[in-house]
Amino acid sequence: ALERYASIRDLKAEALCGTTVSLHMNAGLMADLPSLKGSGAEGVGLFRTELQFLIRNKMPKRAELSALYARVMDSADGKRVAFRTLDIGSDKVLSYMKPNDEPNPAMGWRAIRVGLDKPGVLRMQLQALIRAANGRPLSVMFPFIAQPSEFRTARAEFDKAMERERILGHPLPETVEVGAMLETPSLAWAPDSFFHEVDFLSVGGNDLKQFYFAADRENERVRRRYDTLDVSFMSFLDHILARARSAGTPVSFCGEDAGRPMEALCLAALGFRTLSMRPASVGPVKHLIRHCNLETLRSVIDESRAAGDESVRPAVTKWLTSQGW
Ligand code: PEP
Ligand code: MG
């Protein structure tokens, strides 16, 4: 699949209306990094750090993590990598941590909640990331932020780690960006100040959709029951985009939907200018965006909404068909 799109690999995802969408890839293991060149992605929009914890049978040491993150940054060769701190709990359980028997792990003690309650591992990870950057730019984001105070506390941990490194005389990152994943609906209505204080936001569409529709993303019976192109969800995304826009905060979308061409196209038409997806999706998504007019699609979407459709999918499908797709 990567070869098929090789001819557009170095071209931008510029739509017919002139809008350019920045396409990034999701990664989590060293083995994913070579795809950065092959796919034509502009960077790693989501680096799931828990994968490297999950493939081990004991807790990695700080020096080991730092060497690993340095290799990730080396392989990215100056392209941006947004490191997401550990998102364990839920479906991702570490064999070397005490198991928690929870009735609803997806809504349980996971991600930043673990990081804030037991900050040892979070601190180690932040320090490893700062050391790995070794004077290069660093982007870090915290998963599953449900309210601003969680972000503030996590960011304070990051600032403390920076201060510690400074006192030790270690080189600090050239630039630092600290962001939050928006994957719980509550965060979309956080006070304005929150949207101003994050350096960037990344919508975790998989979790956000699961909590928006109250439909377990792991449950085969319900996981495809609600459409991402449902007008209710689209209005919700509109709201998130408007809030980020008024604060001047960059916002990307990094769930699985960003890698589905029709969904990606609609996300771009709504206003997302950065999408992060599995590497094999970058080519197909870019190909489609380059052949579509996002402004026209936006009016197709708006007309479908105005007509009272439940989902804009039929209207978008019809439009794409009329365009020869
Ligand atoms: C998401 O929730 O959309 C996301 C990108 O994170 P994960 O799939 O790792 O939960
Ligand atoms: Mg998530």
From TrEMBL:
It is found in: Cytoplasm. Belongs to the PEP-utilizing enzyme family. This is phosphoenolpyruvate--protein phosphotransferase. The lineage of its organism: Bacteria, Pseudomonadati, Pseudomonadota, Alphaproteobacteria, Rhodobacterales. The chain holds residues 425 to 749 of 751 of the full protein.
